[in-house]
Specification:
The chain is an all-alpha fold. Helix content is 80%, strand content 0%.
């Protein structure tokens, strides 16, 4: 049996988990964007369906952001919490810049 407590083991695991948390969040944000514009799932044909697709993607985004932040904070995984919040908040900014900057003169 290990001499370290379960909480100490969780904090040791945090050193490797934060990379996977950040990568997973970036992939999720990409899928949510594709879901919002109709590439993944049913393609919206009316304005109401388009609004519903954006709303569903937004609800999933906020739920994943808040749920992951609470879970990682409760577990005491500080690196993973930081990686999660940064990846979730910066990915929409990065996608926006990638789409808008090439258009500017």
């Amino acid at each position: 049996m290990s001499a370290t407590s379960p909480w100490a083991q969780v904090r040791l695991i945090d050193r490797t988990v934060y990379v996977f948390v950040g990568a997973g969040d970036l992939l999720l944000c990409g899928v949510l964007l594709l879901m919002a514009i109709g590439v993944v799932g049913a393609e919206p044909t009316t304005g109401a369906e388009e609004t519903a697709a954006w709303r569903n993607a937004g609800e999933l985004y906020v739920g994943w952001l808040s749920g992951g932040a609470v879970l990682l904070a409760v577990l005491g995984m500080k690196r993973s919490l930081l990686a999660h919040v940064v990846a979730m908040l910066m990915s929409p900014v990065i996608v926006f810049l990638l789409l808008v900057v090439p258009i500017l003169p």
